[in-house]
Design brief:
The chain is an all-alpha fold. The protein contains 50 helices and two strands. Belongs to the exportin family. Keywords: Cytoplasm, Nucleus, RNA-binding, Transport, tRNA-binding. InterPro entries: ARM-like, ARM-type_fold, Exportin-1/Importin-b-like, XPOT.
Length: about 1050
């Protein structure tokens, strides 16, 4: 090897370099070659063409890579010389050159052909077919298809130009003839005539014929189908019909794929398609090979699926296509002799299409298909132990299953069965009843339950009862129990014994994952069996009385072997389940199943003792005993204890606790323990206890419960950020208070009075409530994407602001507004007013200090966060305006509302919502100063380009809504009258138009939003004669029906 070859070796494989300096020098040498005027193309070409100058394939590959980047400098003559060079496998040296070098040479040829054919190299294909190297020509044709012809949409005009030239220059005929010679040569070789060769250079082996047929399948898509059929109709049919012993498997497989390409090729009409199928003899081929199962079964089934699909597409033009398709499916797919291997993912869609069609034989095919699907499901459940009687005649037991590419999934089989059952319910039910494998039966029953019409439900219930009476420890059996508990087991109470004892076996499994799955399933099963258990409990009580009256009865056998016998349960099912479940619940701290198994079992116990069949005293006794067990284990105040008590409460309801005093007492004790645990736990550990507090508040919606919760919250707020160090911890407290208002309402007023002031102070002063936007999202991005850009802290603070607004809304709507009125004298009250009034216009505020006079600054937010907070704020503002406006109930409220009115016009049109119009109407009806403000905003909208007709109409509608407002409900206590829907809808449309005009005016004037807007005094206004100004023509019309508003001149506003 010379220095150049060493440099290439070191560059391609740096560990071979003896030193870093040698590697650097090698790179420099190669750079010197490629940095010449021609990019090193001439140097590399000369190296490859000179005999014995290339001793290693890596060198040839590197040189070809350089040439591939400069094919514009490569003439066709020099390219053909390169193809014949021994350095790249020419001169019958292909066996001595690695495939990657040959493939790179083929890429060089394709790149040259792409640039120069047909203008500069019109004889390209004739030259390539005359090259004494069949392997290279086949590689070039494959690379041409992969890089250019198969990607016409991406390659554009280049691919179209090459295809059109190949058609016009008769290249298609040349290729077809050459491929046919290669195939015939292989046929003669396979027949023992090794001396006869029709292919170029006599290189007509199995690999060449396989490649030729593979290329034919690729090129058929754009070739003239008539030329293809003239050359290959007979050879393809002959190859496909030959037995496997007389033809090489790769060659026959390639021939089948080529036939598939002919079948799926797009043609002008359905008649042409049927003629092609007949001429190619596809039906004869697939029918003749129907029972011949070989290593090519997957290729055969794919061909069958495509043939049936195309026949169905042609059925509209020829009714005979239905008959042909039915014959193919019956003999090639659904016959008992072949369906185990031929009914797969490649043929099932064709079967489904035929069954869903209006074909005359659809019902018969559906019957065969259902039988095959049921058999496939049974094979999937126990392929290694298929019963001898389940193997059809002519079907070998040791036959291989389809590979992963064609194997049917359980989901595919069930979906087909379900869809077919809708069209042929009777056939589906008959097929289901013939199922012998228990798990397959359970799967079909669960997925068919909602499909069969009402007329077949009784037969379905009988099948389900039979399946339930033959239990097996598996999740599918329990799905069957859950699905059919109500319709089946209530009428057959003996089945509950079978189902429950099977569940107990599953809970005693050795594998931890199996126990966890069984425990989770047990919750669903008990839910589904609750009504059945009640019936069983009543039946057990009656049976106990009968047994007491009739001595000598033998006990019921409890083994699973006799569960199919129809008998009444020997004991109360609820007591039986409790007796079985309670010993399984171990409360050891180191128990590995503590959360995965114990918690679901505790929920099962809760559902049982909370059922109506359990006597009240027994229910309280069970609950007391379980809580005592938790306490004695030292777990009642732990995280697991909180989760256990939470699960234990699932079976109880507020009504039950209200009716049974012992339950109320026990749950109140749990509440006290939980509150003490929260006080003693670290802030992060408290998060696990808050779900329990919410659940206990739901169970005990009492004033006493609210007072305990309020004292708890007040104490935590008093401790301050030590107890509530982050926004998340404070949000948990607000959630608790919101639930209190939602569940208890006005009865929680006293509790809210002690926590309102410290809570709002904490919300306003402890944390900077809102962060600035973290960045702009891409235009048109989804809201979830924009929200993902926010940091965790940002999301928590936005959630905290949202919870604060929800808390205020609940106070105002839950007859607890006096709580807010009583706190109106607090130092932070003005901030709260600003937060609501400005937030309703999308201006979410932040304060620069803790003092009341600290400046408020509008904080920009992400759009999704801003819109949600704005709508929450306007809802609060509307409720506050309805209760406080014009009544002097809250100091400075009317002034704050008037100052905020202009903001409601300057929101984005999407935030101009119904509540905005209602607030304006309320202010206009109750506050005289609001009239001046709204008139000034109308004038400003006119100056911003809004049409006078829009402003005039909006003013008239607003006056109409204001006239409909009533200050007080009537004496009967009826709610406030709702505004007219048509008027409100039109006013909302006009408000959005005005808001858009004002926003455009602000944008053109480059205005900046301010944190506080104040109404100008009477002395600062500019009076004008409205009737003399064309832009203010709306004012005269407005005043004509507005009473004293006609005397109010428009006034300018400053921001």
């Amino acid at each position: 090897m010379d220095e150049f070859e060493l440099a290439i070796l070191y560059s391609l494989n740096p560990p071979l370099a003896p030193s870093a300096a040698s590697l650097t020098q090698a790179q420099a040498n190669l750079n010197a070659v490629v940095n010449t005027d021609d990019g090193g193309c001439a140097f590399c070409l000369e190296r490859l063409l000179t005999p014995n100058r290339v001793t290693r394939p890596e060198v040839a590959f590197w040189c070809l890579q350089v040439i591939a980047s400069h094919t514009d400098r490569l003439s066709p003559e020099r390219l053909l010389r390169l193809c014949a060079s021994p350095s790249v496998g020419g001169d019958r040296q292909a066996h001595a050159v690695p495939p990657y070098v040959r493939n790179k040479l083929a890429q060089v040829v394709v790149q040259t052909l792409r640039d120069q054919y047909p203008s500069n190299w019109p004889t390209a294909f004739a030259d390539l077919l005359s090259v004494d190297d069949t392997d290279l020509t086949l590689r070039v044709l494959r690379a041409l298809d992969e890089q250019l012809l198969a990607h016409e949409a991406q390659a554009g005009e280049t691919a179209t130009r090459v295809k059109n030239a190949m058609r016009s220059e008769h290249v298609v005929e040349m290729l077809l003839e050459w491929w046919r010679r290669l195939v015939r040569g292989e046929q003669r070789s396979a027949a023992g005539r090794s001396g006869a060769t029709d292919g170029p250079a006599g290189d007509c082996g199995e690999a060449s014929a396989t490649d030729a047929l593979d290329l034919l399948g690729r090129y058929i898509e754009w070739m003239d189908i008539r030329l293809v059929m003239d050359h290959f109709a007979a050879p393809l049919q002959q190859l496909a019909m030959r037995p496997p012993s007389s033809v090489a498997q790769p060659v026959q497989s390639a021939a089948i794929r080529a036939m598939q390409s002919v079948v799926v090729k797009k043609v002008a009409t359905a008649e042409v398609k049927l003629a092609l199928i007949a001429e190619l003899g596809v039906l004869e081929v697939v029918l003749a090979r129907a029972t011949a199962v070989s290593a090519l079964s997957l290729q055969w089934t794919q061909l069958v699926g495509q043939v049936v699909t195309k026949l169905l597409e042609c059925a509209a033009a020829a009714e005979s296509a239905y008959t042909m398709a039915a014959s193919v499916l019956e003999r090639c797919v659904l016959s008992p002799a072949v369906r185990r291997q031929h009914l797969n993912a490649r043929t099932l869609p064709a079967v489904a299409a035929y069954v869903a069609s209006t074909a005359p034989h659809a019902a018969a095919i559906a019957c065969l298909a259902l039988e095959g699907v049921v058999a496939a499901l049974e094979w999937r459940q126990a392929p290694e132990s298929t019963p001898a009687d389940a193997v059809d005649e002519g079907e070998s037991e040791d036959r291989d299953e389809p590979d992963g590419a064609a194997a049917l999934s359980e989901h595919d089989l069930l979906v087909f069965f379900q869809n077919t059952a809708r069209a042929y319910p009777k056939l589906a039910l008959e097929a289901l009843l013939r199922t012998t494998h228990p798990r397959a039966t359970a799967l079909l029953l669960v997925h068919t339950a909602n499909t069969l019409p009402e007329a077949h439900r009784s037969a379905l219930w009988e099948a389900a009862a039979a399946a339930l009476a033959a239990p097996f420890v598996d999740r599918d059996y329990f799905e069957l129990v859950v699905r059919f508990a109500a319709p089946v087991m209530q009428e057959r109470p003996w089945l509950w014994d079978t189902a429950l004892r099977t569940l107990m076996l599953a809970l005693a499994a050795d594998e931890a994952s199996a126990r966890a799955t069984a425990a989770t399933t047990a919750v669903r099963v008990v839910h589904a069996l609750r009504q059945t258990l009640l019936s069983g409990a009543a039946a057990a009580a009656a049976a106990a009385e009968e047994t007491a009256a009739t001595p000598g009865n033998s006990p019921v056998d409890s083994s699973l072997s006799n569960t199919g016998a129809r008998r009444q349960p020997s004991r109360d099912p609820i007591e039986y389940l409790l007796a079985q479940l309670l010993p399984l619940i171990g409360l050891g701290v180191e128990d590995a199943d503590l959360e995965s198994v114990q918690l679901p079992l505790i929920e099962c116990v809760s559902l049982l003792i909370g059922s109506d069949a359990m006597p009240a005293d027994a229910r309280a006794a069970y609950l007391d005993a379980f809580l005592g067990q938790l306490e004695s284990a030292g777990m009642l105040s732990s995280r697991f204890g909180a989760q256990a008590v939470l699960r234990l409460s699932k079976g109880f309801s507020p009504a039950m606790c209200a009716q049974e005093a012992p339950l109320t007492r026990l749950w109140c004790q749990c509440l006290d323990v939980a509150l003490r645990a929260v006080d003693c736990a670290a802030p992060d550990a408290c998060s696990a206890l808050h779900p329990l507090l919410h659940r206990l508040l739901e169970l005990l919606p009492l004033p006493s419960t609210c007072e305990r919760m309020a004292l708890f919250v007040e104490e935590r707020l008093r401790v301050g950020t030590t107890a509530l160090p982050t926004e998340r911890h404070l949000a948990e407290v607000v959630l608790l208070l919101n639930q209190m208002l939602t569940r208890v309402g006005a009865k929680a007023r006293l509790a809210q009075e002690c926590v309102f002031e410290p809570l709002v102070e904490a919300l306003l002063l402890w944390f900077p409530l809102l962060p600035a936007a973290t960045g702009k999202s891409a235009a048109g991005a989804a809201g979830a994407r924009r929200a993902a850009l926010m940091s965790e802290v940002a999301r928590e603070r936005v959630e905290l602001r949202s919870l604060l607004l929800l808390y205020l809304f609940n106070l105002l709507s839950g007859d607890c507004a006096e709580v807010m009125v009583g706190a109106a004298g607090c130092g932070w009250w003005r901030r709260l007013q600003q937060l609501v009034v400005c937030g309703s216009a999308g201006e979410h505020l932040q304060w620069s200090g803790e003092r009341d006079e600290a400046a408020a600054v509008a904080v920009p937010l992400e759009e999704t966060c801003r819109d949600g907070l704005t709508k929450s704020a306007i809802s609060v503002l509307l409720l506050a305006a309805e209760q406080w406006s014009g009544r002097d109930a809250v100091p400075d409220w009317d002034a704050s509302l008037v100052q905020g009115l202009p903001r409601l016009f300057r929101v984005p049109p999407a935030l101009a919502i119904r509540e905005s119009v209602q607030v304006q109407a309320l202010a206009l009806a109750r506050l005289t100063t609001a009239q001046e403000v709204l008139a000034a905003v109308m004038e400003e909208a006119l100056q911003g380009g809004c049409a006078a007709e829009v402003c005039n109409e909006y003013a008239q509608l607003l006056l109409q809504l204001a006239a409909d407002e009533r200050l007080e409900p009537d004496r009967s206590g009826a709610p406030r009258a709702q505004p007219d829907a048509k008027v409100m809808r039109r006013a909302l449309q006009l408000l959005k138009t005005i808001a858009e005009a004002l926003r455009q005016r602000e944008a053109s004037a480059n205005w900046t939003s301010s944190s506080a807007l104040q109404t100008s005094g009477a002395g600062n206004g500019v009076e004008a004669d409205n009737s003399s100004s064309p832009d203010c023509a709306w004012s005269a019309s407005y005043g004509a029906g507005a009473g004293d508003l006609a005397q109010v001149p428009p006034r300018a506003f400053t921001q």
